[in-house]
Design a protein that fits this description.
Structural class: alpha+beta
Helix content: 40-55%
Strand content: 25-35%
Mean pLDDT: 81
Radius of gyration: 13 Å
Largest sheet: 3 strands, mixed
Number of helices: 3
Number of strands: 3
Number of domains: 1
Strand order of the largest sheet: 1-2-3
Length: 82
């Protein structure tokens, strides 16, 4: 999912997934690296600040501390409109 805010000049890419193993931290890092080139391209084309939010959860409910803090921060600052 891509959230593009013209007023703030930001773009947020959300990649939500459920991983089948317990190594959620490694999968989170893989997702960030996977989208690195795409982020650079978006920043150049749209002239915005962009970032990736890897919304990973383990099958057993495992999440990383970074993921938990990121979701809490973005729920307050990002509001989706219909």
């Amino acid at each position: 999912m891509i959230i593009h805010d013209n007023k703030k000049g930001t773009c947020i890419l959300i990649d939500a997934a459920i991983t089948g193993d317990r190594n959620v931290i490694k999968r989170e890092e893989d997702k960030i690296l996977k989208y690195k080139d795409f982020i650079i391209e978006i920043q150049g084309m749209w002239n915005v600040k962009a970032k990736v939010i890897p919304g990973l959860r383990g099958v057993t409910g495992t999440i990383t501390e970074h993921s938990d803090n990121t979701w809490a921060t973005n729920q307050e600052s990002t509001k989706l409109r219909n």
